[in-house]
Amino acid sequence: MSTVLGTGTLPVPLSVRSQRSVQDFMLRMLFWLVGQAFLAAARWDKGLRRELAGWEEGFVLRFMVAPVGPMLLLKKRQGRLRYQGGSGSQADLTICFKTLGAALRLFTARLSFSDAFAQHRVSVVGDVARAMSVYRCFNQVQFYLLPGIMARKVLKRKPPLTFGALLIRCYVWFVGIPCGLFIPIRRRM
Amino acid sequence: MKANYFEFHNPLKILSGDQALENLPYELERLGVKAPLLVTERQLLEIGLVAQVAAVFAGAGIKLGGMFSEVPVDSSTQVVNQIAALFRELQCDALIAVGGGSVIDTAKGVNIVVSQGQDDLVALMGAETLHRPMKPLIVIPTTAGTGSEATRVAVIADLKRQVKLAFTSHRLIPDVAILDPRMTCTLPPLLTAATGMDALTHAVEAYTGLQKNPLSDACAVAAIELIRENLLSVVIRGEDRQARLALANAALLAGVAFSNSMVGIVHAVGHALGAVCHLPHGVAMAVLLPFGMEYNLKSSFADYAALLLPLADAEVYAATPHAARPAAAIAVVRTLLQELQQQCELPCSLREAGVNQTQFAEIADKALDDGALLFNPVEADREDLFNLLRNAW
Ligand SMILES: [Fe+2]
Q: Which of B275, B297, B320, B340 is buried deepest, with most CB atoms within 10 A?
C-alpha cells in the first residue's frame, strides 16, 4: 500500500527544523554584527571611505538568503553608511545567497567572497562593477573582524596589520559593535 | 580543481563542420520556430555571407521573419531596443545571430528584452537575474574568438549612462551554435590572429581561474591544442578550410571553458583598455596574455606547468624539467605572438597598439571594477594593475 502525500507536505524531522531555526537566528546575528563592523570600519579606514565615496547618495546594499531568508540592508545617507535593519524589498544592489548554509559559511569565514562567487553560491542583482566595490569593502571589513589566521584563509591577499589597522580593529570590536546595540535602526529615508 | 564544489552548464547543441549551415531549417523546426529574426552586420551582408545563410531557406518550408543588418561594432542598449521593437512588430519568435561577438551579444540583449517582460535592460543587469524562459537563439559565428556562441555572458553598452552592462545567466547560452567553415573563411589575417589570441586567453584564464573544474579544464586544454596547431597556419593560409574549422571549434571550446570557469586579470585589464582606449579586444588579449600569466605565475605554477603540454607539444614538455615548465609555457605564448606579428603585424606591446601612458590611471580604475578580477587566482590592487600595464607598454 502506498502513502499519498498532499502537495508540499513531505515531513521534515523536528531536529532538522530546529537546526534550521538556530541557523536562521545565527545568520541574523551575524548579519547584524558584520553590518555594525562595516559602519564602524568605514568611519576610519581610508580605503573603505574611498569606496563609499564612489557610491551614490541613497544607495542601498542588501545581502539576503533566497527566497525569504534573513537580510542585511545598508544605506548610504548623508555621505555615510547606515544600518537599515533586516528587511526591505528595495535595493540598488542585492547579493543573494542561494542557501542559508552558504551565507553562514561566508559570514563565519569558512568560505571566501570570491569562492562564493566561483562556486555559484550567490546571485547578484545590480551593477557588477559596484559588486566589485562591495567585494573590496567586505574583504576589508573581514580583515578588521577576523583574527589573522582566519583572515588569511578567506582573503586572497591579507593586508599588513599596521598600528593604524590595529587601532581600527579595536574601534570596530570595542566601540562600533557595542554602540550598535544601543543605537536604534534609523529607517527614515 | 581549486574547490570541493563546481557547477557546469552547457545545454548548447553544436553543429560543426562541412555543410553545417544547411541544417538551420531543421533546427528551427525542431525548436518550433515559425518566424526567426536574423540579426547581423552590414559588412557581412556586403560580402555575401548573409546571402549564404538566406540561401538555405530556399524550399525549406520555413521563412525568415525579418532581418536587421545594422549592428554596430559595439553592441548598445539603443540598438538592442531598436531590434526588440522590430522583433515585436514583425511578430518574430526566435533569433538567428550571424556575426562576431557584438552581433551575438546584441542578439542576446534583444532576447532579454523580448523574453523578460522588462524594457529597461539596466533593471536586469547582474548575475543570475533572468528568471523567465528565453526565445530560441541560434548563433552562426563569423569570427573564431569570442566564444560568445557558447557562453552565459552578454556585455551591452549603455551609451547614455556611459557604462557597460554585464549580464550573466545560464539562460543566455544559445540553443544552437552552427560552425561552418564557409562562415569564417573571409576573416582577414590580423583579425584572425587577434580573435585567435582572444580564444587562447579564454582557455588559459579558464584553466587557471578560481572557478576551474575538470570539465572546463578538458575544454580549455582541447582548445589550446587546436589553437597551437592551427592559428599560425590559418593566418598564413586563410583559405585552409579544415584549419579554419579547427579554429572555430577551438573558440567554441574555449567559450564553453570560460563560461563555466570565468576569465581573470587579462580580461579585466583588456575590457578596461577597450573602454578607455577603444583597443580591439583581441589585440588587448594578445598584448596582455604573457604579462597576465607572469602576474599569476606563483599562484598558478602547477597549472602553467601542465599547460606547457597543449601549448607546446609532448616532446618539448617531456624535455623540460618540471620547475621550468611554467616559464616555458609563457615563452611559447611569446614566440607565437612574435610569429603572428611577423605575419600580420599584430601589436606585441601597448605602445605599438597606440595606448597612451597617461591613460593608465583610468584603465587601472576601470579594471579594478571588472567582475573578471574576482575569479583571478591572485588579488590585484591598483598598483599591481599599473605595474602590469607599464610592463606591457
Ligand atoms: Fe575575450
A: B340
